[in-house]
Protein 1
Amino acid sequence: MKEGDMKELTRILPKERIKDRLIDRISFAPDAGFYYLLPKVVVQPMSEREIISLFRLSHELGIPVVFRAGGTSLSGQSITDGILVDLSNYWRKVSVEEAGASVRVQPGITGAMVNAQLKKHGRKIGPDPSSISAAMMGGILSNNASGMCCGTVDNSYHTTRHIRFILPDGEVFSTESEADYARFESCRADLYGGLRAIRDEILGDRVLYDRIRKKYRTKTTVGYSLNALVDYEHPMDIFARLLIGGEGTLAFIAEAVLETVPDPPYKSAAMLYFPGISEACLAIGPLTSLGAAMVELMDRASLRSVENLEGISPVVGTLGEGAAALLVEFQAESPDALADKVNGFFEICDGLSLSFMPSFTVGKERDLLWKMRKGLFPSVGSVRARGTTVILEDIGFPVEYLGAAILHLQSLFRLHGYAEAIIFGHAKDGNIHFVITQAFEGMGEIGRYDAFMRDVVDLVVHRYGGTLKAEHGTGRNMAPFVETEWGADAYRIMKQIKTLADPRGLLNPGVLINEGRNAHLEHLKALPPVEVEVDKCIECGYCEPKCPSRDITMSPRRRIVVRRALQTMKQEGDAAGFRVLSREYQYDGLDTCAVDGLCAVSCPVDINTGDLVKRLRRESHSPVANRAALLAARHFGGAEWMVRLLLQGGMLVNRIAGRGTMSGLTSLLRRIFRKMPLWTPEITAPPDMRWARGGVGVDAEKRAGDEIGEVGRRGDAGGEVGEEGKQGDAGQKKIVYFPSCISRMMGTYNGKSKNIMECFLSICGKTGITVIVHKRFRNLCCSQLFASKGFEDAYRYKANEIIRELWDASDAARWPIVMDVSSCTYTLKHLRGMLTGDNLWKYDRLQFLDSVEFLHDMVMPASVVIDRKNRVVLHPVCSLEKMHTGAKLERLASHYAKDVVIPLQHGCCGMAGDRGFIFPELTASATREEAAEVQVGTYDGCYSTTKTCEMAMSAATGVHYESILYLIDETI
């Protein structure tokens, strides 16, 4: 933007919410679709007042404005070369009302989070798109999302009760306000009168009226929701419903109230395999009659794209070339009702031409089936040829024609050379998605795509009377064909609606109404090859809600977008742009990435952007830095001693000069040395290590087995704690305890008489578990410190060392190894790629247990609860989610406390070892929403499983967090 225009913008928003750097404009530019425009500026308003001012500025400057929430739109609905308004940061309010019968939402809250709030009421929102974990309510409403279960009855249009909206002229109206109906008529007489006239025209045209009624008996989102003009009478009600599916082209939806639908607690799903598409489609009717909640179709090509995923039945690999499958789910309010539905299926299954007798599953097996189905689109994208773009379109047919239409569509794939194309979708509604990969290099490839799309339009509209968009919104790809599907009269009405609401045409132009007959071939997105760790990313955005840095710098998707932009600049010889973008990427892309790997948990194809960041950090290290890291790894005991000395010195300074002295001093030094760690009030004195020398009591009451024996009496391998040999090898409960370096340096807790290591040993003593402590543990490290910073040589050295030492300590893998910090356990469980020689053989035989696994599996069955706590809150760390042990943590806490709370907004705290000390703004941003939940409660204890994460949550909430070990030790 011009300098004068930017000055106007700064009168509306503070500088920190105006993103005009090159890296901001580039990283925010694309959504999940295959079109690309570079915005002039990205802004993050917080209030309706600011939205109104942005509309005014857009009109004054003649610059388009586009609103974006989750950016999961697939057809370019949320891109612009004007002002991009990002709603994902400050528009996340959600309020459950009427005991769950309705819910009030802002546009920046994800559908999954809304459902999480409704879960305790046994309710959910009606629309259930596959992208619901990342898709936000603004997009769900603006695209009239439906999904796998809701059909045409419970979609966004039919479940939206009230809408509060802002018109491009700045007027604000709400369908909840009776006064606003009269004000709408007086303040916007042109819009009011125009909509009344259009409605009268439709009511007087029986052919058009019947066409509208017929169209909306099946799923369709092509063009504006013309059914609003026959379903509602008052122009404001009509306009409010036109916003549903209006793709942000008519007004801004500031808030909506949705009626919710039941979420039956009992669900069972199965994959049904058929020899062909026709046989699968013939089963849709009987399954629908049985009350199947979901019937999802997958052709052979889509099954092939996931047949090698972990947990997928080997049967898939044996299917014939023309085979197909239906993923079917029954839902009910009780186990008996669910069993009746499943039994009803088996009574008719002999007549369904099944290739195999299916097995209905629940729990994790069911979840795996749905994860596979929801990940089909990204999974195909991940195996595309490098440099190609993924295109997903969603079309619909009358169910009776579905089988024939799919076979016809597959013939178009062959005709136009799309051998990798797949088909899947919501068979119960006749709604299917097809995915192709396309290169847009050269007019030949663009021409091939154009010819294919025009054949698809002809197939859908003229041959089978279907719809070109069933649920994803019209978008840029189908905008040129809206008139083809609807006809001239209906299209003329749509253009009138756009003109009435947005006379200047500056609100998301070109998306739904576009006079360009080749608009679907313009502004195409390129995906140049980048680093192998992230190259298969298709920018779907599923990763973003999990990322701790998403609100302060960048999300995984945006980090990858910038890597692609850098590659393009390099190819095009843009040296100046490359320098600027690389410099800005250092802080946004590298320094503030927590490398927690949660993006891989959300990603359907397991892309871990942290691996990319580690690589880039590794490549940035000088030989001197690498040698220094290796030296520290070889002499880790000395390095640990130095850190302990520094911590003791800092505590001494605070005692002498005041407890805030070190915080102030390090804050001052950070102005000069940007990466100087910040001393925080949560830092405590290093723990007393006398327990490791023997003779130190763990429990003042000295219960049996509660003393620490002489460490090292088994030689160098280690020493035992407890009553050695009491039970003999048969049935003896014995473990190797490896106290983490974090615990050794920072393992004390304010107000606790025991440090974390003494607490661990106390628990073992009370439950009769013998403990082996490695004699040289103070020179050992799990290697995470070096791995996260990209020091590969030091990482490899420390990884191999720890396996050798733990092999000896465990008596050649005879006893399991337990760690007291979850992130360190996760590191140990993922060392294989760094190991050499016989360490690989040893590693595969060792058993590593996180403290949660140990406490749940060994301590909980052996303990007697004496004083159960009332209400506690948990912070499940990233490592637990990646190790799939979060459920064990919850069960463990529930055994020792009556009421266990896990905040709905829990996630990575951004601490990432030392990252939160160096970039405290990262942890402040990452913990903001979880902390807000915790602060409204009263708890008997707050617990987690990694010391640094506990420190981050303590700082964020003002409530003291400690290790879960203390909950157990204090209640048994």
Protein 2
Amino acid sequence: MIDHLLELLRTSGVAVLFVVLGLGFLIGRFGLRGFSLGPVAGVLLAGLVFGHFGFTVSGALQSFGFAMFIFCVGYQAGPRFIDVMLADGPKYLALALVVAAAGFVLAASMGWMLELEPGAAAGLLAGAMTTTSTLAAAQDALNSGLAPVPEGWLLEDVVTNVGTAYAITYLFGVVGLILVIKFLPVLLRTDLPAEAAKLDTGDAGANAESDHRLVTRAYRIGPSWHVDKPLADLDDLHPTVARIIKARRDGKMLELRANTTLAEGDEIVILGDQSYFVAHDDEIGDEIVDRELLASSTVTAQVVVSNREVVGKKIGEIDDLQRLNVLLTGMKRMRVQVPITPDIVLKHRDVLTFTGPEEEVEVIRRVLGHVERDVVETDLLTFGIGIVAGVTIGSFAVTVGGVSLTLGAAGGLLIAGLTVGFMRSVRPTFGRLPGPALWLLMELGLLMFMAGVGVNAGADIVDTLATAGVRLVLAGIVVTMVPVLVAYAFGRLVLRFNPALLLGGITGAMTSGASLRVITDASRSMVPALGYTGAYAFANVILTLAGSLILLI
């Protein structure tokens, strides 16, 4: 049985791919004191082991994963990329450029000083900066002919050098970046919670969607609970924790508006977190059981911001939102949870999660954009045409000074993804790609590509470790740590960023979601996520291009 399985794996690249994906995902889930490698590092490790023992993965499947991953990177960044450039872009662009430039110069310099083999500097940059799109762009630049292959070297060997250097430096890149981000505030004696509190005027822990345990309860108001005060005052006290969604006086339902006042004896329905009722149950009045009041069912809907009239406005400035009978329980930007405060500015493709009576959902749609739950299918026509267009754009060559220049598939796919993503933010019915579908395509594409990288690099990993392993590890440490320190100094002294926001921006500039989690935990706030999304929109584009450029010097 074992022999038959091994023979199957040796003859079927598809079987090897999915075994590596499964084992890698399992490896990535193992944690120690809250830290885990994650699926990318897990798949890379599994691929290295299988590659070392002579197993292979289909090149076509790896290319398929590469195309999906790069296109989805552009698609996800498209709305925010344009918005950030037009609004608060200069600071985040400068931060992303400083991080990328520091890493680029260091990787190129280390490659020259340590006499690394051709292609290794590109792998060093990608691994130490923990940016897989840099690796993908570098290997594509070689395969497409954009980057020349040095005399005396085979194309396959240089491509393998890129992957092997990436594999060796990536693991420290992940762990090292987390350690630097974790201990830098300690060394600088920075009180992150206090710094985050300067920007976070809301309840830092109240907008974690997974933490909400929402229930509805009916009460007859007592004499001392917000009587004769407008509902706006009550809503401002607990904007993401509790909301009055119904009120009845003398048998007649009241129309709830911001200036509506309540009186003793009014019967109300409150939608809120269980913790709110535990803390305030005795203050509100007598709880009642009333089928009429509690009859309407509540639903949860994700609403995507696309209405031009609200984009660029603060949540607190949108009058139509101030007295909807719904509870705003979460907000995500580029799939990253961000804090809900009255001062948070809405951007294209922000996703707001509301819970409340079903009849209010249509009102929310008219105010903000469209309800995500209405979009359950992917626009495969636009998706397919976008990828073909990206590959086509990447194949065009321009001759400059006798040298043929081309974007390559990575550059073309990135541009196509950015374009489709931005057009989708302007016209929500175009290029539908629901959040779960985007996550699946992007994650699966990335892991398929990483499985191929690991298997291909595994064949030479032992020899490379023996000959250049120590040099690569030391170079990786430098390329991981120095850009963080340079960016922090630049952000504080030149850009005047708040430390919590700056550290979030640095993790975004290095596209490290794991490091973002470290900062949000340390600051006890989601404020760093705002910096992350600002820099991440630029970093993915800049570092992808850097993967091709470093091979040209």
Protein 3
Amino acid sequence: MTGLPAGTITFLFTDVEGSTKLWERNPEAMSKALSHHDELIRNTVEAHDGFVFKTVGDAFYAAFSTAAEAVEAALDAQKSLLSQEWEETGPLKVRIALHTGKAEERGGDYFGPTLNRVARLLSAGHGGQVLLSLSTQELVRDQLPLGAGLRDLGVRRLKDVLGPEHIFQLTDPELLSSFPPLKTLDVRLNNLPIQPTPLLGREREVAEIADLLRHVDVRLLTLTGTGGTGKTRLALQSAAELIDAFDNGVFLVALAPISDPDLVASTVAGALSVSESAGRPLKEDLRDFLSNKKLLLVLDNFEQVVDAAPLIGELLSGCPALKVLATSRTLLRIYGEHEYAVRPLELPDPNHLPPIETLRQYEAIRLFTERAHAANTHFSLTNENAPAVAEICTRLDGLPLAIELAAARIKLLSPQAMCSRLGNPLKFLTGGARDLPERQRTLRGAIAWSHTLLDEGEQVLFARLSVFSDGCALEAVEAICDPVGDLFIDVLEGLSSLLDKSLLRQEERAEEEPRFVMLETIREYARERLEVSGEAEEIRRVHAEYFLALAEQGASEQHGPEETVWLERLDLEHDNMRAALSWMLESEEDEPGLRLSGALWRFWWMRGHYSEGRRWLEEALAKDGRPSAARAKALEAVGWLADDQGDIDRAVEAAEEGLSLSARVEIESSVTASFLRMLGSAAYVHGDHEQAARLYEESLALSREARDERGVASSLLQLGNVSGDRGDHEEAKTFYEEGLALSRKLDDKALLASALISVGAEFLLQGDHERGAMLNEEAAELYRERGNRGHLQYALDNLGWAALLRGNLQQAEVLHRESLALSRQLGDKLVAAEALEGLACSASARGEAEPVARLFGAAEAQREAVGYRQEPREHALRQPYLGAARTRLSKARWNAAWAEGRRLGFEEAIAYALEDARGG
């Protein structure tokens, strides 16, 4: 056929009954048989103008434009299968199901409820059987193949727990005609309620729950999770899957309407139609009734009657074939209980979205898309709205209830508009289906339901935990949530209870204490409780003081052997640091904000948070203008971050203010020396080597006097750069060797990497490309193994030039593009200019011209924005590539392309370099 069927489609699904056992018995023969089976099914489908759009194991999924063609294909497939010689495996028994409806085609696959329905219809059949739904039967009943007929199998409930389906069996003299009863819910006793929509995105969980309950030793399985995770729906679907395993049926006991544990026995009895005997406890009647029955009880919403757990224990002890599947926000805590924690739906990373076809496979995105389409048939996931949908699902923590409530709003709001209204999801997400309990009609109701299960001490701890952003360690909980011992509950016991009640999650970390995390939607509710308590401000103050102390301790450790450990810890607590900074900058006290931002600046530098660090520092400096040592540290921090971004004017301004402060307040000599180096760096960038050397020498002398070996090493390396550019290579070598040796002695990896970059760059400029590359490789490895992004762009740029000068254009381009992308993230204009010119030289070596002119023009504009004067030997490195490209264009065209490049802004220039295809 020429294209995929669209509109109303008839789907034909097949699979091989008993294939697992056949594989186990004779894998070699089964492999050969399945190869023949696959060829037969595919050829038959295609012969009747069908389209096989997916295969999974031995299952085939095909689509047809007409129901008649699908039925003919099913009939011919079964006839062909029956006529084959299958040798060692014996006949392959293939079951086939046909269902007609609408579905959405995306990238060669189909999606929608119609697919779910035909899959469930297939699972009801037996090998050799062909089943049709009512929708397909109505289309083909008057145009069946000659000799074929339809047998009415009645209205049956499939295991998708949706409404019943009228099922028909295709008959023919050449087909098998007698089969066991259909595997539907009607075969066993049950009271599972009809659901209005299919369960989406939980296939793995349903399979895992069913497998657990099939184990002989699993008698009680409790599904735990916070409100809105979909425990009830998951339990119902799992129970439906298991119905064939329980001869005496599967029964749901809805416990939500009751809160008195004494009513549980009568509620269970009512679901089972067990009558109470006069003068005898009802639990004994229940035990007698269940004693010889192989039955599954689904106890839904057990959390508010958890004191009735001993009754369940007694029933399980006295009824050996009974099994219980419970849903609860807290464990029952009786002997033999197994827990299955129901997690939120799988989410993509909203900052790094995959292609839309991959994005559609994420559970949360799939649920939103299907429910939104049900609310508004014109809705579909597109490249334009996909980022907003991903953000919605992420901000709602992947909670099915929250996502369904949001999707229902699609009738009024686009996903993009919805995002702007999700500041407080508890207010936005209301108005669920009227036939649901109130607690399931709003996200607030779902969380409040769990909150009512807490005792007073647990409620206080729950509220106080909201002060943490992105989780916390036990030590922090103890220090912040119970600072004066007024919690009236042991912290460990309280955390355990909140975990049991699914209001808190525990994240295990290798060789470290666990971390406790709240879903953001739950944290929003807890934060409201904290505000109502009247102690919000005090808890935030304690939180800020704790993380200030942690940051200052980390700052003191970042030059030593524990540097990596502390960087990782600060990474983990970055959101808590941000929350502490926000509170400090809003409070009446001025100095704490300066202290915290000053303590974090090396972390921001190492992890590449240049712009964010500058924003916090500038806000803290603007809040407190008084002379102080804390202000001096903050000025040092903002100055170096500005320097790394090429904002030389701000770096000079910060250094000059810092030096003037040293005359009025006592500051560390190392900080004063740092300000001198900062001014020396500015002079060096502007090409004033005399001034740069003088300032670096002053910094060196002050650092030696203060016994600041790191400052000594930094000053020596900078002096080496100046000497090299002045042409005094022997002096440069002396400075470099001393600085490099001192850096290795100190075991300061960041300082050592910086030294290696400086020395490596000098070797490159002197023509020793191999040694220059080797030193920069070592520097890059030091940065990478510690997760440092700050200054990695320098090493990558140097490695790109080394590759270019050795004639490896492909490697050079990869490295310069990587350096350029990192420079964009960091806001580093100077290294970006270097990488742009590196790419321009690679383009010239490939014989191009106009891109070369644009890239050189763009680089020139970025250097001018920084105020950097390129050294003659740097220019000489580029001149052969530049000259070769100019000969390929007229002067007018060259100048026009150069001017186009100069007009590009920082982001535009990088986008052009990274995204524009240039061949090669």
